[in-house]
Amino acid sequence: MNNLKIFQDGLIKVYQNDRQEQLVDARELHTALNNKRQFSDWIKQRIEQYGFIENIDFTTFHNFVKREGSNLGSKTTEYVLTLDTAKEIAMVENNEQGKNIRRYFIEVEKKARNMFEIPKTLPEALRKAAELAEQLEQQKPKVLFAESVERSKNSVLINELSKILKQNGYNIGQNRLFEKLRNEGYLIKQKGENWNLPTQKSMEMGLFEVKKTAINKPNGDIITKPTTKVTGKGQIYFVNKFLKEVI
């Protein structure tokens, strides 16, 4: 993976090699799909079940993982998937997160085609130049927004994030935004005391923080309630992510 560059960092990272091929780390895909099976069993079963061919649909390499506090460790086998293979694996996961990731891969595919398609005629080249200029013009408010948020350390509620998204051209209310964030694996969707709290993945990405709010009950008791807030980094991430859907 050392010779790969990040092509798209969204729902899951998509990498690019020197031949401009888009690739996906199978272990990262396994995590993004929220699959509970052991990774090595899961990927081997997918390869065998759907007939994926090494060095065509995927490649492998070995990684040495040290044990904490020791020079000892174990060797793991890692898998790098073509975008088509990753798209098919996401589809056969047969759940909402798999569908979301597959749609995301399709958008990445379109982006790659547009970027690397060479104009065959002068009018086509002029049209592409005009489209690029228009896209850059449309991006200006988003760049200014990102710069202003980056300078701010204030976190906001999900409701406030929905207002920010509306101001930047993505029309979504608080309830639909909560649902979208749950379905795409950013918030916990299992009902209970942790419902709508950040998932481990989104906390590790630095997108959210959890604030404790004290509530005074009529009988004099004081209880604390966890509240999910979107960090400055999270605001930039979600504005950039969701606005790509309307460009």
Provide structural commentary.
It is a single chain. The protein is of the alpha+beta class. The chain folds into two domains: 5-116, no CATH class; 148-243, no CATH class. Helices cover 47% and strands 21% of the residues. The chain has helices at residues 26-32, 39-50, 83-92, 96-116, 122-151, 158-167, 174-183, 200-204, 232-243, and strands at residues 5-9, 13-16, 22-25, 58-66, 73-82, 156-157, 208-216, 222-230. It has a five-stranded antiparallel β-sheet. Strands 6-8-7 form a three-stranded antiparallel β-sheet. The protein is globular and about 70 Å long. The model has no long low-confidence stretch (mean pLDDT 82).
Characterize the overall form. globular
Biggest β-sheet, characterized? Answer: 5 strands, antiparallel
Order of helices and strands: EEEHHEEHHHEHHHEEH
Q: Which structural class matches the secondary elements?
A: alpha+beta
Counting structural domains, the number is 2
Sequence stretches where pLDDT stays below 50 over 5 or more residues = none
Distance between the termini: 30 Å
Q: What strand order characterises the main sheet?
A: 1-2-3-5-4
Q: Would you tell me the overall average pLDDT?
A: 82
The amount of beta strand, in percent, is 15-25%
Specify the helix fraction band.
40-55%
Which descriptors apply to this entry?
5-stranded antiparallel beta sheet; alpha+beta; 9 helices; 247 residues; 2 domains; 3-stranded antiparallel beta sheet
What's a quick, concise take on this entry?
47% of the residues lie in helices and 21% in strands. With 247 residues, the protein is of the alpha+beta class. Strand 1 (5-9) and strand 2 (13-16) form a beta hairpin.
